[in-house]
Design a protein that fits this description.
By secondary structure, the protein is mainly alpha-helical. The protein folds into two domains: 1-30, no CATH class; 79-186, Alpha Horseshoe (Serine Threonine Protein Phosphatase 5, Tetratricopeptide repeat). The chain has helices spanning 17-31, 57-61, 79-93, 97-110, 115-127, 131-144, 149-165, 169-186; strands spanning 2-5, 8-11. Helix 6 (131-144) runs antiparallel to helix 7 (149-165) and helix 7 packs antiparallel against helix 8 (169-186).
């Protein structure tokens, strides 16, 4: 049925089907992650220069500016990522490590620079016996969360256990040395 009111056409469908269609469309739109725009990395928002704007060889030879001495504070994690992390904890408590891993992967798609999420996923991978992935994810967490000593300690423990699980006794010993160093520093 089509109604015309003050020059505007409105289509109504019997039985609330239009409302159901709109509800589904709005739900899907709310869950969608915007596609990254060309030239702008999703996690930084910094514009990347096009290839034709690359520095000349003479400019590349000049020393780069020193990195800031103080690490930048981490951006707050999106509420959706935090909700997925909480759901992953429930899945771990229920013994469903596969679901916990999937939820943390989704959370990392929302907040890829969150060191805590990388560490949580590393712990899940360790529990699943996926030692190489656990080590890589804990190392990624260390890179992102360099200022958080408690998180660094947890990551080094994961790395030590992962290396031990892979049969790398020397690597595990080095990781445990780092664990002891951090424990002394934390008091």
């Amino acid at each position: 049925m089509t109604q015309v009111s003050e020059g505007v056409s409105v289509v109504t469908i019997r039985g609330g089907r239009m409302a159901a269609v709109l509800l589904v469309a709005m739900t899907l739109a709310a869950c969608a992650v915007p596609a990254p725009r060309p030239g702008i990395p999703a996690e930084t928002g910094v514009v990347v220069a096009p290839e034709d704007a690359l520095p000349s060889p003479e400019e590349e030879m000049q020393p780069a500016a020193p990195a800031p001495a103080v690490p930048e504070p981490a951006a707050p994690t999106a509420p959706a990522a935090l909700a997925l992390a909480a759901q992953s904890e429930q899945a771990v408590a229920a013994g469903d490590l596969r679901l916990a891993g999937l939820q943390l992967e989704r959370a990392l798609r929302i907040a890829p620079r969150d060191a805590d999420l990388w560490s949580r996923l590393a712990q899940v991978r360790l529990q699943q016996g996926e030692f190489q992935q656990a080590e890589r994810m804990a190392e990624r967490s260390l890179q992102l969360g360099s200022a958080d000593r408690d998180l660094a300690l947890a990551n080094w423990r994961i790395i030590a256990a992962a290396r031990e699980g892979m049969g790398d006794a020397e690597g595990a010993r080095r990781a445990l040395d780092e664990v002891r160093r951090l424990e002394r520093a934390l008091g």
